[in-house]
Here is the input.
Amino acid sequence: MPTYLAIDGFLAALFVVFSLGVIATRQMLGTLYLFMLNSLALTASAVLIGIALGSPHLFWVAAITFSTKVIAIPLVLRWSAGPQIYERREVEQVLTIPVAVLIAAVLALVAWIVSAPLVHAISDRPFAAINLPTGLVAIFFGAFTVAVRREAIAQLMGILIMESGAFFASISIVNDLSIITEVAAAVDLPVIALVIGLLIRNIHRVTGITRVGLLAELKEHR
Amino acid sequence: MSPLARYLVINLIQIGFLLVFAPLLQGVLTRIEEIIQGKHGPSIFQPYYDIWKLFGKDEIVSEESSWVFRFAPLIEFAMPIFVVMLIPALTAYPLFFAFAGDMIAVGFLFAASGFFVALAAMDTGNVYGGIGASRTRMVGFLAEPVFMVAFFTLSYVANSTIPYVVNASWAVSWAAMLQPAHLLVIVAFLLLVLADEKRLPVDNPAGKAETAMIGHSKNLEYSGTGAALMKWGGAMKFMTVLIVFLNVIITPWGLAATTHWSDVFFAIPKVLWKMFLFLLVLAVIETTLAKLRLFRISEFLASAFVICLLAMGVRLVGMG
Here is the structure.
């Protein structure tokens, strides 16, 4: 078990680094690749905990996560949003990146401190001590990404990172979740990505931009 | 042979290892990058030919320059030799000077050589040298606090800043290697190595346009022996940084555990093999990333700073 915990800690660190990368990267395509790597770390953690706890449900979680978040969602987003959007080199930010990453560091500390009593309450779950705080960090990072990025695709990455964070935490607490729930989540996410991707393509076609933050300023024609 | 004499000889072997193989690393890295880019590229021994050629050439020194210009190549060449005596280049056990300085001292020695090289770049009045020197200082100033936090994190995680002690603290078990804080320190150090060695995405080492250069404009005014020393010294500094990064932080294995000659000499191919693997990674990074704009470098280093903070946070909250 100590070896499994050590490897899970390693994966958790990767998960946090890739989540931070989504906040710090300027390139749109880079953001998408980092999300894929982040999902890969989630998949690996699910496989590891599945092996350690002998839970076949977690192998399903891993398979579903891999097929949806590492393969399906990036493909759907690239197809639906159109190539023009990924040709943009720089994602617009509300804050400068050094300020954003510093705030992210503070958020990580807050997440770790907030999760400490929860971890204590479920001390019978060995992986929760690693996955729960890490998942909470990703949820905070995802929410922060939504707030700090002006581009629609980057904001969607933030929402998906939040979802991955919730998964990262939950696989260590509830490791016998019914498969139907997993499948529902697996179908939901690519559909969400498809709908938002198509919406973004249309916004881009009509307005020439994907900075959805600016849309609040649009006025109706009289 | 007495143990004292044996230690002294091993120290000399470490220096010889650095002197002999440093240009080879540059040659291998260039060759790998050329292959990835679909080119044939020069021989891996090209840096040796270049250094040999430069030693045979006349040296031209501007009348406007002062003693600093002549002194800088010597200090650039000598500093890595001092540094390699402080770090575990081939042996896992401490040698003569192991406790004479820690990683902060290593940083200081390199900063001292960087200071003289920057002065020398401005000394001749060449405008590109001045621009490069001021840019190098800018990156240095940005990297300085990150280095400090990284060293602090390292000492916090490994309980020491002496390279041999840090090496031993990681090498003790796989669990120690896989600690989240350790991984985060590795990532932060990788970013720092790229910035400090002026590699992509911070600076383009293969760039030929003087106006875009950061660290590589410092050699422009040198010729003959001065240029050879700068080139060889730069290669040795790169190798020394790799030794710190690989032997101390990432992979603290493959070093000689005993003072037997066979053990020490067998460590040479093992360390070179680790370096080759890292050069492959570096070549992929350098061929896939574009150079950052000058004022984006602060973002790159801010990320390294925050990753160091996360490493400390992880350790503080008891996650690893």
Notes: The CA atoms of residues 181 and 313 of chain B lie 8 Å apart. Chain B has a mean pLDDT of 86. Residues 3-316 of chain B form one domain.
